[in-house]
Design a protein that fits this description.
heterodimer; A: 370 residues; ABC transporter involved in vitamin B12 uptake, BtuC; 16 helices; globular; B: 257 residues; alpha/beta; Rossmann fold; 2 domains; 6-stranded mixed β-sheet; 40% helix
Chain lengths: 370, 257
């Protein structure tokens, strides 16, 4: 008889208590909310509008970069159409909050207060936007994830462009509920999302609380995914597809899943982006330039590293905000910085590891040297 | 005779005009330790690739423990209980050694998104069990101390053994070893032979191995199949194979040539 037991038998021996697991999940959820409240009320009260704005942008960028990392970092695919999924989420969520605000409150003005009917509609619309983006991810991913490398990149690039063009074809925005009710079918299909003029006057519900909350949820999701059996299977695809398959990993299924997870969070990030003060959504938001920004954050942080992607997202947002006065020179400096980083750290800041693994390793090595 | 654990019946594949493998038949009984040899380019690894679903056979049937698997996808074949190692080691280099072996457990686990993200009791238990099993396996191979190391940093011999660990973690019925002794020194080879024999006893796994080192093959295999240019030219016990004139010819060439 074999001395090594089967997985099932062994799992039965180490089953944790149900109540404890429930408590654990509850504590994690509350911790996310507490962190978001802390950021909103404590940090938010200490900083001015300029810094707040940077924090909001950075938060959205974290969500986008960390989610793209699931596809490009974990499974090793190469998607450059992330902004397309972000735009799907942004427009869907904005459409819901804008027109429901007109219908319910008679105005597109956001309701005040952290928790109001309007802000709950906003939170729900962000999830719906995420789901819509995930659906788009499924549609794009299923046929195209059999492709590899450059081919997949072209398909995802094409997807972003398709979204952009479709959004341009949407109907002009309607500015009151009466107008909306009186609208003919032709004005409602394709949906009145503003077309090339852009979609404006979106209720400004995005606050530090919601951004911090969704950042926390995204991070918990990604860390737990990476450290799970599913996550290891995704990383194994990136390392060696043939070996992964031979060990029983259903690579097509996992690639599509990774794509859907990434799209979902891109959609949520898009929703948060759309409801910021002064945002007018434009079809070009789905375009290549934005996708590229997100991609840079992931590569800079180190493909596969969640903390790397998050840190790079913050660095890039802050850097571009600080360099805003430099005008066009900003892009030159930006590109130069990237080139230097790719020369000196081609694997990104942290490679596939997390920040603490990198610094923990350094610390240990020094201790050994002593 | 009871049903063979691996029943290969006349499988064949051609790449364009090249008949890489023709009419390959082999019956591996439960608990068997068989060998597959042949000169370079004889089609040995192609046979493994056909068995594991990397290629789909153009003719013939393959059954693992009575279940037909030809034409199904590689991960489904792995789930049926066929696992392998690779000639040119294919570990997940950037992952830790223990993660590599835990990945082998993946196919036996059950995975749900909610459980994974919310850390359901079943998910937590499964992760713990995977880690334990992986460490058990690594300890058996004296690799426990390297568990946290990135797989690419291990020595060649150790990487080969990690690959065997990973394959065993899938709970296979049949284990295919593709040149396990390649690149090992005589001492390591000796240890490997003992190890391969012990696998069968400890894990109840049946083994088919490809090997170039005749010493190793002749010593541990009960029966040997010899391939040359995709065709089976001999089959028998090590002593029969050693005396077979066709085999000698394939390896050494005829005197006239």
């Amino acid at each position: 008889m074999s001395p090594v037991s089967k997985l099932d038998e062994q799992a039965a021996l180490v089953m944790p208590d149900r109540g404890r697991a429930a408590l654990n999940a509850l504590v994690t959820g509350l911790a996310c909310i507490a962190a978001a409240l802390l950021v909103h009320f404590v940090v938010g009260s200490m900083v001015g509008p300029f810094v707040t704005r940077i924090m909001l942008d950075a938060g959205v960028m974290i969500i986008l970069a960390v989610s793209l990392n699931i596809v490009n970092g974990f499974t090793g695919q190469f998607s450059i159409g992330h902004a397309g999924f972000m735009a799907v989420g942004a427009y869907v969520a904005a459409g819901i909050t804008y027109y429901s605000s007109l219908a319910l409150f008679g105005s597109y003005q956001a309701q005040t207060g952290l928790i109001s009917v309007g802000s709950l509609i906003f939170a729900a619309s962000a999830l719906v936007g995420g789901l819509a983006a995930a659906g788009a991810g499924w549609v794009v991913g299923l046929p195209s994830l059999r492709l590899r490398g450059d081919y997949l990149a072209i398909v995802t690039l094409g997807f972003g462009e398709i979204v952009r063009v479709l959004l341009q074809q949407s109907n002009p925005q309607l500015f009151s509920w009466d107008e909306t009710r009186a609208a003919s079918l032709k004005e409602l299909v394709p949906p009145p999302l503003g077309g090339a003029q852009g979609f404006q006057s979106i209720p400004t519900y995005t606050s530090l609380f919601w951004v911090a909350l969704f950042v926390a949820i995204t991070l918990v999701f990604c860390f737990r995914l990476k450290r799970s059996s599913e996550g290891r299977a995704m990383l194994s695809i990136r390392e060696d597809e043939i070996a992964a398959q031979a060990m029983g990993v259903n690579i097509t299924n996992l690639k599509v899943r990774a794509f859907m997870f990434a799209s979902f969070f891109a959609g949520v990030g898009g929703a948060l982006y759309a409801h910021q003060l002064g945002t007018a959504l434009r079809p070009t938001d789905a375009g290549f330039a934005r996708s590229f920004e997100i991609l840079i954050a992931v590569v800079l942080g180190g493909l596969g590293s969640i903390s790397g992607a998050a840190l790079a997202a913050v660095l890039l947002t802050v850097a571009s905000a600080l360099m805003i006065e430099l005008g066009p020179w900003r892009m030159v400096l930006y590109a130069l910085a990237l080139i230097l980083i790719m020369i000196f750290r081609p694997g990104g800041l942290f490679g596939v590891k997390e920040a603490w693994e990198v610094f923990g390793g350094l610390w240990r090595r020094k201790a050994v040297a002593r | 005779m009871s049903r063979p654990i691996l029943d290969i019946e006349k499988i064949a594949i051609a790449f364009g005009g090249l008949k890489a493998v023709q009419d390959f038949t082999l019956r591996l009984p439960t608990g068997g330790l068989y060998g597959l040899i042949g000169p370079n380019g004889a089609g040995k690894t192609t046979v493994f690739n056909l068995l594991t679903g990397v290629y789909t056979p153009q003719a013939g049937t393959i059954a693992v423990d009575g279940t037909r698997v030809e034409g199904t996808r590689p991960h489904e074949i792995a789930a049926q209980g066929l696992s392998r190692t690779f000639q040119n080691i294919r570990l997940f280099g950037l992952l830790s050694v223990v993660d590599n072996v835990m990945l082998g457990c993946h196919v036996r686990g059950r995975h749900g998104l909610a459980g994974t993200i919310l850390h359901s009791p079943r998910h937590v238990a499964q992760e713990r069990a995977m880690r334990r099993r992986a460490m058990e396996l690594l300890s058996l191979f004296d690799l426990a101390s390297a568990a946290g190391e990135q797989a690419k940093n291990l020595s060649y011999g150790d990487q080969r053994r990690v690959e065997i660990c990973r394959a065993l973690a899938t709970e296979p019925k049949v284990l295919l070893l593709d040149e396990p002794a390649a690149g090992m020194n005589p001492q390591e080879k000796k240890e490997l032979q003992a190890l391969i024999r012990s696998l069968r006893d400890r894990f109840g796994v049946s083994i088919l191995l490809i090997e170039h080192d005749m010493g190793v093959v002749m010593d541990i295999c009960e029966r040997i199949t010899v391939l040359d240019y995709g065709e089976t030219i001999a089959e028998g016990t090590p002593t029969e194979i050693q005396r077979n004139p066709k085999v000698i010819e394939a390896y050494l060439g005829t005197e006239a040539a």
